[in-house]
Request: fold
Amino acid sequence: MPLIIVSSDNFKQGDEIGQKVAGVLGYRYVGRELLTWVASENQVSEEDLARALDDPPGLLARRARRQRMLGYIEAACLNVLLDDNVVCHGLAAHLYVRAVSHALKVRIINEPEQRAEELSQAEGISLDKARKQVLRQTKDERRWSEEAYSLDQTDASLYDLVISLGTLELDKAVEIISDTVSYRKFQPMTYSRKLMQDKALAAGVRLKLMEQFPDIRVEANDGTVVAYIQSLKKDQRKKQEMVRQIAGELPGVRHVEVHIIRDLVGQAAQSSR
Amino acid sequence: MSDNLQVLLLDDEPIVGRRLKPALAKIGCDVDVFEDPEQALAKMAQKEYDVVVTDIRMDQIDGMQVLEFVRDRWPRSKVIMITGYAMMSLAREAMEKGAFDFIAKPFKPDDLRRVIAKAAHALGSDIDFEAVEMEKVNG
Reply:
């Protein structure tokens, strides 16, 4: 049975809708509690993982660390999503299961004015100030997803269903999502299951290699793994061999190909020495 | 008529039929192979197949039209779509129109056999896929 991926401009609402949909359909709900497991599995702090998902883009130096945290989350989340009947929210899955046809991608939005009014009341600030904060939040949300996944998560075309809570009640949204997922087009098929397995395998390989190769990009197809890494020409062979060895030991990997992307910055630095 | 699962396999690349026919025969399927969609449709106008396996991208008549024809003429038949041009929108369209499954090329004969076994189960006539697997292991 299908997967439901919920994204929202209001975390609490997305969480509530996700849990209610899971309850109605008898699906498993996967949200931020997964971070506890991810933290212990990878010996990182849960707080750092949550910040990687929530904090707006910052200094360049923090980017590599955040991408690593997101890599941990993505690998764990994709493994959960290999199962059927799962509702997922708050783990950025809408940005990494895009092509999977049995994942219904839902975006929950609020009218900006309504958000500003709620913020103004909750924080005791003027409506004008609240409006500016809402604008900034939206901009940060866009910048975050563009930097982390090269996608604008506020873009409606990423989703199968966009529901405005300015127009519909929260419980109506739950009803619509629960009905929509029953359409035949969202049923799993051999093709979409394989795609999900490939994504999970690629994420697992990346997870094993991202300490040594922070910029690594990995694709997988039926046990064949293609890794793209940056390297200076002189280190190329050693690095390729290292990737082949580490990736080749992972379950499900039958063949490893390593492609080199020239490290132009490193090369320029070396030639100027 | 044989108790074997009746399968029609349509793909305009001859190699596909040549490769898959013996693989499906091993799990107890009677397979009719077609490369020309028009001839396949003419045959299906007369005969009800348990399972129809069809390529999607073909000249003149595409796999979606074959799917619609089968769903209309023989609602009980299971249609499995295979394509080298798999993408989310096409996969969803096929499922929406009533395909039983959708497989991206290239695939291994076992992948199709597994789906055929599922289709047989859905039709109430089980194929012992595990026995075939064991036979392969034991030589």
About this structure: The radius of gyration of chain B is 14 Å. Chain B has a mean pLDDT of 92. The longest strand of chain B covers residues 5-10. The beta strands of chain B are 5-10, 29-34, 51-55, 78-83, 101-104.
